[in-house]
Amino acid sequence: MANHLKEQVIKLYKTLLYLGRDYPQGAAYFRGRLKSAFMKNKDEMDPEKIQKLVARGDFVIKELEALYFLRKYRAMKKRYFDPEKKSDT
């Protein structure tokens, strides 16, 4: 595997591991799934295939960030929105 691809894969793994701390089903669950996904593809040597897998990992990062943002938004809305108080504007 080319050195730059190896760096990309390691960076991707570390980023996903960091994001997994706040996963709704728990960090341990996420870590196990992450490890199994990376171990499944550990013998891949085709640079194009590795690039596709890294791109898929980047997509997962964006999805996780969206999930966390939505969860935060819902918590803020629930905290500050009073459903019994309606405006008649």
From TrEMBL:
Q: Which GO terms describe its cellular component?
A: mitochondrion
Residue ranges annotated for the Complex 1 LYR protein domain, each copy included: 8-60
| One BP annotation, GO | respiratory electron transport chain
**Pfam families on file:** Complex1_LYR
What the entry lists under InterPro entries is as follows: Complex1_LYR_dom (IPR008011), Complex1_LYR_ETFRF1_LYRM5 (IPR045296), ETFRF1 (IPR052000)
PANTHER family listed in its UniProt record: ELECTRON TRANSFER FLAVOPROTEIN REGULATORY FACTOR 1, GROWTH HORMONE-INDUCIBLE SOLUBLE PROTEIN-RELATED
Give the family per the record: Belongs to the complex I LYR family.
Name of the protein this chain belongs to: Complex 1 LYR protein domain-containing protein
